[in-house]
Specification:
The chain is mostly helical. It has a domain of 70 residues: SMc04008-like (SMc04008-like fold, Orthogonal Bundle), CATH 1.10.3340.10. Helix content is 66%, strand content 0%. The chain is built from six helices and no strands. Helix 2 packs parallel to helix 6 and helix 3 packs across helix 4. The protein is globular and about 45 Å long.
Amino acid sequence: MNDQQQLEIEAATFRRLVIHLRGRKDLQNIELMTLAGFCRNCLSKWYKAEAESRGFDIEYEAAREMVYGMPYRQWKELYQTEATLEQMKAFEEHQRGEVRSAQPTKSKAF
């Protein structure tokens, strides 16, 4: 596989992840943060940062809309629920034990 092919596969994989998350509206961001250490908002921030590193100016809300598939405010009104005490406790425990140096590794295609 050459670098371009790897890049295309990685891009397609990212698109599948976004589509999957759009379909899992029942999965709350706090749960994603607790279990995986990232959420839809993190993906939005990473998308914005990568676009800007390549010279593209993109608003955070536009990046969020790309990830959520709709304006964030609308998604929040329709699908976000109040965090339970159990979710908050699990999130806080995760945050205390989390290593803060989670920088993505660059593949050879980058």
